[in-house]
Amino acid sequence: QQNNAVGELKFRSARETNGDPSLAVDGLEESLDWSKCATIDNYFVRKPLWMVDLGRETDVAGVMLRTWHGNNKAINSSISSSVYRDYLANLDRYNVYVHLRPRRYRFKDTNLCSFITRTDQALTSSSRLHFQCQRPLRGRFVYIEADGSTDRWNKLFTAVLCEVFVYEQ
User: Fold this and answer.
1) Which of 66, 69, 65 is CA-nearest to residue 83?
2) Which domain of life is it from (predicted)?
3) How many Å apart are CA 155 and CA 135, to the nearest integer?
């Protein structure tokens, strides 16, 4: 199947400074190096967003996300293990939304495609996260929203999005 997200317009929450959002739709699926992935964090917003404009209205059936955190090499890389540990410990949930118009905040449940939480064990067990919509959602904009843990002293996290695949029914 064709990835409808490759090469389309990207956006992330205001005031982000690292991990260009276009890196999540550059077509390089096997690149799980942190520096080659888009990042969103909660330094300035509680629930950071990454968005792609598909360029046309589409019946979105699901999204597959390649992340950095399932990459065993990442633990042994030059990035310190404490950064890696905090990144995993503080990230609690991904939500995927589909919408007809660009939005930045307050999504309705009717626009929710799917979500994955820490309690699902899927959040940290694989570098491939699959979000199957409960039903096809018509929209042009696909959003990935990250949310952090509320029960830790340090609540900062970075969500690393290496490649995003959006597919139709």
Assistant:
1) 69
2) Eukaryota
3) 33
Instruction: Give the chain's radius of gyration (CA, Å).
Output: 15
Q: Are 35 and 131 in contact (CB under 8 A)?
A: no
Burial 18-53 (b: 16+ CB within 10 A, else e): ebebebbbbebeebbebebbbbbbbeebeebbbbbe
Q: Which two tokens stand for residue 143?
A: 């959003």
Q: Which of 45, 44, 10 is nearest to 24 (CA)?
A: 10
pLDDT digits (tens, 9 = 90+) for 51-64: 999 999 999 999 99
Residue of 150, 153, 113 lying closest to 129 (CA atoms): 113
Question: Could you tell me how far CA 168 lies from the centroid of its own chain?
Answer: 18
Which tokens sit at 12? 């992330």
Model pTM above 0.85: no
* Domains of the chain and any CATH numbers: 9-168 (2.60.120.260)
List pLDDT tens digits, range 71-118: 555 444 555 555 656 666 788 999 999 999 887 667 888 999 999 998
In the DSSP assignment, the letter for residue 71 is -
